[in-house]
């Protein structure tokens, strides 16, 4: 059988002519070139996509969004709280705590067990039973709350019983959580000093009393890589933010790394903010009548669970972290380097961000601060030339009005009232008006501005103040009681202890709230 010339399957040495061979060779070379070009394009796309995953996410308009660091005022529950407020006192800490700790990621790292790190107002700051009942009465919220700590909803009361309520004495960076769509959505947040929180046996904040939000340690990322959203309070300074440090003791035994985990504390030394002295408070055991613990309960060890968090997917991007890692995203590190480690302060929504981008934006502006200039550098407080051991009067601005409040010449109680020119009644913690406390607060401010909190939670930026020398409280002698005499009996009235005869160091008792049914507080 014979074959026509040029057939591809010709046997016996027949083959294509020279032109066909040249054409096929060129076609193969073109295919190789195309393959190389496509491979290069794919490689570039992979790099771009990879950088986009490590970098920051974009909003619907295509604008790059820097992860948010949300400011949360002491009395602000935020837009998506887990529960109603369980705070028992609305008095906030005076601004007389000097900066402390060592530099870490652009803020100050402090030990959660350091004496005086947290404060107390002389009694319980939060109603633990009410928080437990709220989470028990809302199963979805309770389950979302429990998921943050890796426990079951049925274990929540027992976990709450390992915590103790305290007051923050400095602005503190935490990983907060909002309750949205039935889940706990994490976001980075700075809680204002004076915020009532729960801490565990490692001194790590675990819940906020104003909203019930669960807390984790802050992300291990430079603060300068975030955008600060919300309205800064007058004392807000990035350099004064504290983050509870997480340290692990590592030793090497026979070339084997051993992690030493100490036992959790049973007591904390906290600062009595009314008297200015350190006191010891027990950790946990604020509830009773819990009954037998649920089978299989395994509560987290506070000393082993106080490290930085990690998240996956969008949650990692929202918190400035690499996907599934505790390491910061490269773009967050780069952003911090570009702006010198100081985060930009923006108001929620001004850069096209959505509520999800700024979950904790506060909508309130402290009294004495203009919302349009809250982040600007204020003028140092003018104390004039007067001398004394306590403040006699103070002046601040409320909107367009200058208000002066005059203090009494005798501080007879832990709280003192004042007469203000705008007709409003304002009272203050007496200890925060003494010269030592005022001087400490002013020196702690880089701008030498004195800010003062009222007992109702308002923050005043004082523009000027005068000193006075306190007059010792006079001891009044009451007229002797008239004896009623009968031929057989003489009756004398029992002596009554009045407020004047009470020692000045006596701290007013904290009003106790009767617990609701469910989880009862310990007596």
Tell me what the structure shows.
By secondary structure, the protein is of the alpha+beta class. 16% of the residues lie in helices and 24% in strands. The chain is built from seven helices and 26 strands. Strands 9-8-5-4-14-15 form a six-stranded mixed β-sheet, with no helix packed on it. It has a six-stranded antiparallel β-sheet with strand order 21-20-19-18-23-22, covered by helices on one side. The protein starts with 17 loop residues before the first helix and ends with a strand. Residues 1-15, 46-63, 348-376 and 475-518 have low confidence and may be disordered.
Count of extended strands? 26
**Low-pLDDT regions:** 1-15, 46-63, 348-376, 475-518
Helix content: 10-25%
Shape: globular
Total number of helices: 7
Average pLDDT level:
77
- The fraction of residues in strands falls at 15-25%
Question: What is the CA–CA distance across the termini?
Answer: 111 Å
Provide the gyration radius in Å. Answer: 32 Å
Strand order of the largest sheet: 9-8-5-4-14-15
Largest sheet: 6 strands, mixed
Helix/sheet category: alpha+beta
Question: What descriptive keywords fit this protein?
Answer:
alpha+beta, six-stranded antiparallel beta sheet, 523 residues, disordered N terminus, 24% strand, single chain, six-stranded mixed beta sheet
